[in-house]
Write a structure and sequence with these properties.
- The complex is a heterodimer.
- In chain A, strand 29 and strand 30 form a beta hairpin.
- Among the domains of chain A are: 109 residues, 2-Layer Sandwich (Nucleotidyltransferase, domain 5), CATH 3.30.420; 134 residues, Rossmann fold (3-Layer(aba) Sandwich); 114 residues, Dna Ligase, domain 1.
- Chain A has 16 helices and 35 strands.
- Chain A is an alpha+beta fold.
- In chain A, the strands form nine sheets. In chain A, strands 13, 14, 15, 20, 23, 24, 31, 34 and 35 form a nine-stranded mixed sheet that branches. In chain A, strands 3-2-1-4-11-12 form a six-stranded mixed sheet. A four-stranded parallel sheet of chain A has the order 6-5-9-10, with helices on both faces.
- The two termini of chain A are 43 Å apart.
- Chain B is α+β, with helices and mostly antiparallel strands.
- A seven-stranded antiparallel sheet of chain B has the order 2-1-5-4-3-6-7, with helices on both faces. In chain B, strands 14-17-22-19-20 form a five-stranded antiparallel sheet.
- In chain B, a hairpin with a 6-residue loop joins strand 12 and strand 13.
- The relative contact order of chain B is 0.10.
- The chains are: A alpha+beta, B alpha+beta.
């Protein structure tokens, strides 16, 4: 990374969440780290961020780079507070956006409704024009008609316009012209076109992404301008980078052009943190579990890198088709509510008590039993534990809440509470298995990285249930996303479709595709301020059996010019991997293979400087700070020593049962499990 | 319940997840576009006796109910099962559904004892017969609909049986490719087996087998408890197919259902339904049960997924040889657009009648009916043969408390989606002209149905086209005075005579198309709920603004008169005086089964919060 300010030594990683803003100050010369947590300040979140910068005692002159992860784009979509947006599309195709993919989430549910589109149907305008799939213009753009549309949009007070025509990914002439005309007719309006935002085949996904981009455009424009002005106001003139959903950061300029890229960057940053923690701890294949108050984010990371997927749904049917870190949210968090259904069976989640009223033990008026209440009743959390900066918990309220289900079930309080945790763990385990299978993996081949305030409470037992041998709990579990922001570099992913099979492939064409992708990648990273020598390019190719749609394997490709043998080698590698993963290959006469996509991931070389070090060695053999009765499903009540996490030195070993507490999280070691502190102050736990 | 309620919940979810995993595995590995792109596949776990325990959350409803009868047939056929064997089976008359839905059935053993079965279904794109795709809208018997397979041992000791595989290859188009789909289904079964045996190892046979019984009891008890809350009585509904295409002069085919509720018992009597027509429409007994369970679960969504506990709690009566209980050799390939949708719809209408006083939220008007369009030919640019199915999403029926959604898949669909225009144009010689809601295609009501879609296209090469559908004339019905939705439509404007429009209808077969011909292909809107004259005028205004209905429809059916809105800065608004007058003067729609009419039995249902004569005098 180029350093904007001479002599400055700090990199700041900022994660602006809905409730809290976390700031990490990393001294790139010594590796020393300072962290702060402040209250977030909606709607613009800037005051809270500046307070955090102040709290880590970073003088603007000493800061060389600020990296920001923000929830503002996601919130804008979820709360529907974006710009009033119009869509201009090909005549006859009004409902490409509104029909979406006509999918629904479950089979038997006639009460379900899709999320409302970001553009009203009445603001969906069509204009005569048509291009074929080969890029041939069948019908010219009706420019006069478009100007008339612009006049109507002006009259309606439309602030942003998305333009998306059929087959514009292959010929963008009409979209370019339409963008010019609209910009001309609607001065001050935000106009974007699908051939610029996402030049890819599939009209719904491209249109939806472009619409989300337009919807966010004016809001992000105002936010970023205000942010830069305020930073300038405190005397900071260095670089600012924004995290995006693809697990990287990008420049302010890129964020202005493609604001939809910022959505979902929070969970993406969490995954990046998990991947980095695993990589540094020499466990390159990890499942990352980030458990918060209302939900748990789960993702897979292989060879030190998170899996990337081509798209994600910000809500069902609101699709943003950028390559994104593959993370799935499941409705299991500390606030998940337990209830007994009409058949007498215990259910947990996905309803959550949220932050207000929160779990019963918060003493804020909640009466329904939650996972947090169960943890308190079972001694896994202590009355003196402080969750998310709150005052002490109220065990009596938790007990009352748990009794509401214990009595009808005919259980002791502890049995009922343990039941809540068991059901919740089973839900998490089911989701993790399903996600793994979808991506073609077996969870037992991974280590589990657990963070978020609540992740380490469940991780060891969950790993045991899944047959996962090891759990890694980082030194600061409550700083997951901010840690991710700290670890991400400028990164962009580029994809190009290729139409080739193992019988008919043109190596020249494949070489051209990679060359073109790499050229685009270099241009983009250079624009984001990365020196050409610092760009690391990684190639991959998607191969599948000809005829498969969702399956196939992604294979690594070497750098430089490829020859025919290299391509044939890829097909051989496919057969080997397929046999390994699925236990069969198709008979030879059928096994035509197809190359589907060439991919290039471009990333800035990791910032040189000292690795951030969390934690410091305390006494060689710290005594537990106390002892607590903790309930274990197999052994009942056991006495568990309580350790202070920050006092544990490198190499220290703790057998379960034990509880390890720290300001922002609690790690539970059940009987039979074991933990060791590694050189980076991670807890490496075996599930036993 | 034998297990404690916590262990029960934990293990029951594990069984559901493993089926979801299996379904994902099939989608990932399958070769057939009907499976990999169309998601027309399912994956289930059954007990050793062949009782359904769990299935995937996004599976296809018609497959799910056929698992029990299919496993039953295989059990009778085989006797002793050996580990490592997998059977293939697709007979419609004994197992249910049509020949395209091919099942793999795998016995699962634990400690040398048969403990369970995995069964999965994949819709193969072709299983032979007279026409590519095996759908035959003019079939008069099953012999022109493809290869019927009795239970055959496809894998023995893990090895694929060459004879069986060759039989498949000899009897269907692209038969050799099916080996990929067989492996996809086999692999899913292997995953289910691993997962189940892990549970056996961890919890013991006794617990898992107690779990199976508990799952059935849990579902059955909850179902019966809810049925017991409903007033005892007989609830009746009927629906029709447009025609017997082989005897269009015959009366419409009638599906009639009488639901009797007595205490906690529910019985569906279809014995007054018509005899099976000569042409395709009907389905076998096993599919009748499936469609009844499907409609029932939509009205009891908290009981989903389907398992044996529900199937043993619902009685279904039918007459062999009737249109909902066909026998060999009556054709079965067109069941989905035929009997299935009608039976599911009347099942839901009977439940609506039963629920109207106690829980009116469980009342749903009928929605989009499948209309499958199959095209085939040689691509003029690549010289390659192609066959492809096209289908339309359409309008959902109105709910008793909110509008139906536009652009939804058929009621029995789990994971399937629509097909992108840009992909279709790249692969087939088609030029689409529309992807647009059909204005005024919704059934009207206090709550309206969703509109259907127009996915019309021009051909860019010569091709042959076959349509297999229904509900061009008898459209998705409304309830409680809501009108029936718009029709499925297929019309042709030939390039040679562009001024003439030809009605092709829902059973067009082997139509030769020339380059430049325009097909007009539109889908049903959903039925409405409640009298349209009680829909708030503001909601009617919004419908016009959004383009769902025209101002004419607003006035004629809803009695809402609009003014302004001619683009001169004068916004569209409600003319209050004219509306008050018009609402009093608007006549209710005529009784009948076509678009815009009111289903005579549907009309008898009450809208929530109103008397039996609700809507007769608008307020």
């Amino acid at each position: 990374m180029t350093s904007a300010t001479e002599g400055a030594r700090y990199v700041l990683a900022v994660d602006v969440g809905g409730t809290f803003t976390d700031v990490i100050r990393h001294d790139t010369e010594t590796g020393a780290v300072e962290v702060a947590k402040t209250a977030s300040t909606p709607p613009d979140f800037i005051d809270g961020m500046l307070a955090g910068i102040d709290a880590v005692r970073a003088k603007p002159a000493d800061i060389k780079l600020i990296k920001i992860g923000t929830t503002i784009a996601t919130n804008t979509v979820i709360m529907r507070t974006g710009a009033r947006t119009a869509l201009v599309t090909t005549a006859g195709f009004t409902d490409v956006l509104h029909a979406a993919r006509a999918a629904r989430p479950t089979l038997y549910d006639s009460d379900w409704d899709p999320a409302p589109a970001l553009v009203d149907r009445r603001d969906t305008m069509t204009v005569a024009q048509r291009t074929t799939y080969e890029g041939e213009v069948l019908e010219p753009l009706d420019e006069a008609g478009l100007r008339a549309i612009a006049a109507r949009l002006r009259e309606r007070g439309i602030e942003a316009v998305a333009v998306s025509f059929l087959h514009s990914y292959i010929n963008d002439a009409h979209e370019r012209r339409a963008q010019e005309i609209l910009a001309d007719e609607m001065p001050g309006g935000y106009v974007c076109r699908s051939s610029d935002i996402l030049p890819e085949i599939r009209e719904f996904e491209r249109t939806s992404t472009t619409v989300a981009n337009a919807y966010l455009g004016p809001v992000l424009e105002r936010y970023l301008a205000a942010l830069l002005a305020r930073l300038e106001g405190i005397g900071y003139a260095g670089s600012v980078l924004i995290t995006h959903s693809g697990g990287g950061v990008m420049s302010i300029e890129a964020a202005r052009r493609i604001p939809a890229r910022i959505c979902q960057s929070g969970p993406a940053a969490g995954v990046m943190a998990g991947a980095a923690i695993g990589r540094l701890a020499e466990r390159p294949d990890v499942i990352v579990l980030d458990v918060g108050g209302t939900s748990a984010d789960v993702s897979l990371s292989r060879r030190g890198r998170p899996l990337i997927r081509p798209e994600w749904n910000i809500e069902f049917n609101i699709v943003i088709s950028f390559p994104s870190v593959d993370v799935t949210a499941i409705g299991a968090g500390g606030g998940s509510i337990a209830r007994i259904d009409e058949g007498g069976v215990l259910k947990v989640g996905p309803d959550s008590a949220g932050a207000r009223p929160g779990p019963a033990c918060y003493g804020q008026g909640g009466t329904q039993p939650t996972a947090t209440d169960a943890n308190l009743v079972l001694g896994r959390l202590g009355a003196e534990t402080r969750l998310a900066g709150r005052v002490a918990l109220h065990p009596a309220l938790a007990e009352q809440a748990i009794d509401r289900i214990a009595e009808p079930l005919g259980y002791s309080r502890a049995e009922a509470a343990a039941g809540i945790l068991r059901v919740m763990r089973a839900n998490m385990a089911g989701a993790i298995r399903l996600i793994s299978v979808k991506r073609g993996h077996d969870p037992r081949d991974f280590a589990l990285v657990a963070f978020g305030g609540a992740g380490p409470l469940y991780a060891v037992e969950l790993a045991r249930e899944l047959g996962i041998p090891e759990v890694i709990v980082p030194f600061r579990p409550g700083l997951g996303s901010a840690m991710g922001v700290l670890h991400v570099e400028v990164r962009h992913d580029f994809v190009q479709s290729i139409f080739a099979t193992d019988e008919r492939f043109d190596t020249g064409e494949i070489n051209d595709a990679f060359a073109d992708l790499e050229e685009r990648a270099m241009a983009r990273l250079t624009r984001d301020g990365v020196a050409a020598g610092d760009v690391v390019l990684r190639r991959e190719i998607d191969v599948r059996y000809y005829g498969q749609v969702s399956g196939g394997l992604t294979l690594a490709v070497k750098a430089g010019a490829l020859d025919d043998d290299d391509i044939r080698g890829l097909f051989r590698a496919f057969h080997e991997r397929h046999t390994e993963d699925y236990g069969y290959t198709l008979p030879e006469d059928l096994a035509e293979l197809e190359i589907v996509n060439a991919r290039v991931a471009a990333e800035a070389r990791a910032t040189t400087g000292a690795e951030p070090t969390f934690g410091a060695n305390g006494a060689a053999s710290p005594a537990p700070r106390g002892q607590r009765r903790m309930y274990d499903e197999a052994e009942g009540w056991v006495e568990a020593p309580v350790y202070e996490r920050t006092a544990l030195p490198v190499g220290f070993e703790i057998p379960g049962p034990a509880i390890i507490e720290q300001l922002d999280s609690t790690t539970v070691l059940i009987p039979g499990s074991h933990a060791r502190v590694d050189e980076r102050f991670n807890l490496i736990c075996t599930s036993g | 319940m034998q297990l404690d309620p916590i262990t029960f919940e934990v293990l029951r979810n594990a069984l559901g997840s493993m089926c979801d995993e299996g379904s994902e595995m099939i989608a990932r590995l399958a070769y057939a576009p009907t499976i990999s792109e169309g998601h027309d596949h399912s994956c289930a776990l059954l007990t050793a006796e062949g009782r359904l325990v769990a299935h995937g959350n996004r599976d296809q409803a018609p497959h799910i109910g056929s698992f029990e009868p299919s496993v039953r047939v295989v059990k009778e056929w085989v006797g002793e099962f050996e580990p490592g064997d997998i059977y293939i089976f697709n007979d419609p008359y004994t197992g249910g559904i049509h020949c395209n839905d091919v099942k793999l059935i795998r016995p699962i053993h634990h400690d040398g004892r048969l403990v369970a079965f995995n069964s999965s279904t994949g819709h193969w794109p072709d299983v032979g017969g007279a026409l590519p795709g095996s759908f035959n809208p003019r079939a008069v018997d099953c012999y022109s609909e493809g290869l019927r397979m009795p239970p055959m041992r496809l894998f023995h000791d893990g090895e694929l049986d060459r004879t069986v595989m060759t039989l498949i290859e000899y009897n269907m188009r692209t038969g050799r490719e099916r080996i990929a789909d067989i492996h996809a289904q086999r692999q899913a079964g292997s995953l289910i087996e691993d997962r189940l045996l892990e549970l056996y190892a961890r919890h013991g046979a006794e617990t898992i087998e107690a779990l199976f019984e508990d799952i059935f009891d849990y579902t059955e008890e909850r179902f019966r408890a809810q049925v017991a809350q409903l007033p005892d009585g007989v609830y009746e509904f009927e629906d029709f197919s447009d025609k017997d295409i082989m005897h269009p002069e015959h009366p419409r085919i009638r599906v009639h259902c009488r639901l009797t509720i007595e205490g906690d018992r529910a019985s569906f009597d279809f014995r007054e339904s018509d005899a099976a027509p000569v042409g395709p429409f009907g389905f076998p007994r096993a599919s009748l049960e499936t469609a009844v369970f499907d409609g029932t679960l939509h009205c009891f969504p908290q009981l989903a997924p389907l398992n044996h506990g529900l199937s043993r709690a619902v009685e279904v009566l039918s007459v062999p040889g009737s249109c909902v209980h066909i026998e060999e050799p009556t054709p079965a390939s067109g069941y989905a657009s035929g009997a299935y949708e009608k039976v599911a719809a009347v099942t839901m209408a009977c439940w609506a009648a039963a629920f109207q006083d106690t829980d009116p939220k469980r009342m749903y008007a009928a929605g989009i009916n499948l209309a499958n369009l199959c095209i085939g030919g040689v691509h003029p640019k690549t010289g390659k043969h192609y066959v492809n199915y096209l289908w339309n999403e359409g309008g959902q029926g109105a709910r008793s408390y909110k509008d139906g959604n536009p652009f939804q898949m058929m009621i029995f669909i789990g994971g399937a989606t629509n097909q992108p225009v840009e992909i279709l144009e790249r692969w087939y010689p088609l030029l689409y002209t529309n992807c647009e809601g059909v204005t005024d295609s919704c059934g009207d009501g206090t709550w309206r149905g969703g509109v259907g879609i127009d996915r019309s296209f021009k051909t860019l090469g010569a091709m042959t086209m076959t349509m297999h559908g229904d509900r061009a004339e008898v459209t998705p019905f409304g309830l409680a005075g809501g009108t029936n939705g718009g029709p499925n439509t297929l019309r042709l404007r030939r390039a040679a005579s562009p001024d003439k429009e030809e009605e092709l209808g829902m059973h067009a077969m082997g139509i030769r198309l020339a380059p430049g011909d325009q097909l007009i292909y539109r889908s049903n809107g959903g039925g409405g709920f409640g009298d349209p004259r009680t829909r708030p005028p503001e909601a009617v205004l919004a419908d016009v603004e959004q383009g769902w209905i025209t101002a004419e429809r607003a006035e004629q059916v809803y009695g809402v008169v609009l003014a302004g809105g001619n683009g001169t800065g004068d916004p569209l608004r409600i003319d209050e005086t004219a509306t008050a007058k018009r609402r009093v003067g608007t006549e209710p729609a005529d009784e009948g089964y076509g678009p815009g009419e009111v289903h005579p039995l549907g009309r008898l249902l009450k809208a929530p919060g109103n008397g039996a004569d609700a809507g007769q005098s608008p307020t």
